[in-house]
Each structure stands twice: as structure tokens, then as C-alpha cells.
Amino acid sequence: MTPAPAPQDEQSAGPVLPGILVDPEWLEAHLDDRLVRIADLRDQEAYQGEHIPGAVQLDLEDIGEIRDGCENAVLRPLDFGRAMARIGVSSGDTVVAYDDHWGLPSARLIWALHYYGEGAVAVLNGGWDRWQEEGRPTAGVRGSDGAAPTNSVGPEPEGRNDFEARTNPEVAADFEWLAGRVAREAVILLDTRSHTEFDQGHLPGAKAWDWFNAVPVGSWECSRDPEALRSELAGLGVHPSDEVVVYCRSGMRAAHTYVVLRHAGFPRVRLYDGSWQEWSAKGAPSHHG
After folding, report:
1. For residue 51, what are the β-bridge partners?
2. Residues near 25 by Cβ (< 8 Å), separated by ≥ 6?
3. Cβ atoms of 170 and 270 closer than 8 Å
4. Secondary element (H or E) of residue 123
5. Which 3 state secondary structure label does DSSP give 261?
6. How much is the pLDDT for 289?
7. Which of 130, 163, 69, 121 has the alpha carbon at shortest distance from 258?
8. Residue 2 confidence (pLDDT)
9. Would you tell me how many other CB atoms lie within 10 Å of the CB of residue 55?
10. What does the pLDDT look like over 106-165, one tens digit per residue?
């Protein structure tokens, strides 16, 4: 595997994203840009009914696998590259993902793309619900353009480069890396599961912060105001200067917090992909209550 790539402005041939969250206005302005790829993380039925023009449908199951007894482990490099090629994503593309669940599934894809070396990636803030609520163009059976839906996963487009998965270790924590730092109390751990799950068992020294804390009340958006989040997390002893590892049960909810923290100005965030299911299965030290 080749080294992780340079930052977005040096590695991506596509338009520069305003951040890891983008608003519908930005995406609509770039719908015709051939280097912007749009991934719809809703189910196939919802996609066939109506979707953002140019979007391709992707199931989260297509980028994860069961490995060593752990569910949803991100695919290995070659398999992940093939999965991206099937939906028309090449290295250097700008990728925007959306869903109808506050960005939760989209965040998982965005973290996986970060892990495999792509920097020009973002979640559509507000997702499908906000896009539709604002009356923006749609495609599909019920779409505003009246066009029939296209195949969600087709052959790799001719003339496009393959997706080359280039592992970026700076955004991930595996068991061995984490175990040593937990023993030395050398890392900030953020448990993004519910308080009930946390009380039933968690990594030593972890701080409980349910992923849904980030979602604004009564809004489709992915994240509350970054300043408010920084203030709340500071109360837990979590600061932008810290190296923070987020985890949940299987790395899904933690991916949302990964995106939220990046958006809020935390540059040193890692996701523990094995999360609690791996930690507990290995019989590693844990605390309760």
C-alpha cells in the first residue's frame, strides 16, 4: 500500500469543499461537475423513488464485513477499492454522501474514505430531508425531472482511474495501538454509545458522550454549532489539542462523532473500528458504571 495522500487541495482534481459538512446550496451548484460523486446511503427502495440527480445508491454492507467475529469492519484495501469503483468513485474525486438519518450512515463512508486516503469528502448537512424540504431538484420515479432511476451500482465508467486505497493510519486506532495507550492513560477516549450501554461496560478512562448529543433539536442537520460543542466537550475534559479516540459498539455511531469533531475543529481524531465488540471479546480491561 502506498502512503497516505497530501491534503485535499493538493490531491483532489475536483472542487475544493468548504468543509467536512456541506450545505445543499453548495452541492446543487456542483451537480454537473463530473469530478463530484454523490453517494446515497438510503435503502434501495427510497433511492428508486427519488434521489439527488447523479447520485448512486450504496448500502453500508457493501463497505464492511464480519472479521474476527466483529461486525461492520471496514473492508480491506483491495475490496474497498473495488466497492468504490463499482459506484464510479475514483481516487481524487470529490465525494459527498447523504442519507435520511442525520448523517449517521454517510459519516461511516466518509471515515472509510479518510482511512483509505481520500481527503475531498463530505457529508451533506441535513441530508435528503433538508434537500427535499428546500425544494431542490430530484431524480427517480417521483423525481422533479421525471427521469427513470438508474442502476444503483453499475460497471466502472470507461476512461476513469481505479480507486487506489492508500491507508492513512492517522485516523484509525486498532486494538494494539489503543491497548498500550489506555494502559498509560495517554489518550482521550470518547464512548459514543448510550449511557445504558456505557454503564454496562466501557474502556478504562472513557468519557460517555452519546453520538446523538451532536444533533440539533428539531433539525435535520448533522451537527450543532461547533462552538457550543467545543464548550460542552471542554466540560468533559476534551479539547481540540487532545488526541481523541472515538468508539461505540461497532464503529458506526463513532463515525458520526468523528465527523462532528472534525467539523468542530478537532484535528487529531481517530476511530477505533473494532470498538467495544472487539475490546470486550479480547477480554481487555474494562470498567462498569
Report:
1. 139
2. none
3. yes
4. strand 121-124
5. helix
6. 85
7. 121
8. 36
9. 28
10. 999 999 999 999 999 999 999 999 999 999 999 998 766 555 555 443 334 444 568 999
Residue showing cell 446550496? 25
Residue in this structure with the C-alpha cell 500500500, named with its chain if needed? 1
Cα(36)–Cα(121) distance, integer angstroms: 10
Task: Return the axis-axis angle of helices 104-115 and 253-263, rounded to nearest 10°.
Answer: 70
Residue 173's SS3 state is strand
Q: Indicate the pTM of the whole model.
A: 0.91
Average of pLDDT values for 184-204?
96
* Beta-bridge partners for 73: 65
Report residue 56 as a C-alpha cell: 448512486
What is the spatial distance between Cα 279 and Cα 272, in angstroms, rounded to a whole number? 10
| Cβ contact 31:54 at 8 Å | yes
Residue in the block written with cell 450545505: 23
Q: How far apart are CA 199 and CA 187, in angstroms?
A: 20
H helices of the chain, in order, are 8-11, 24-29, 44-49, 77-86, 104-115, 127-133, 175-183, 195-200, 226-234, 253-263, 275-281
Backbone angles phi, psi at 56, to 5 degrees: -115, 145
3-state secondary structure of 170: helix
CB contact at 8 A, 129 and 50? no
Domains of the chain: 8-133 (3.40.250.10), 169-281 (3.40.250.10)
Q: What is the Cα gyration radius of the chain? A: 19
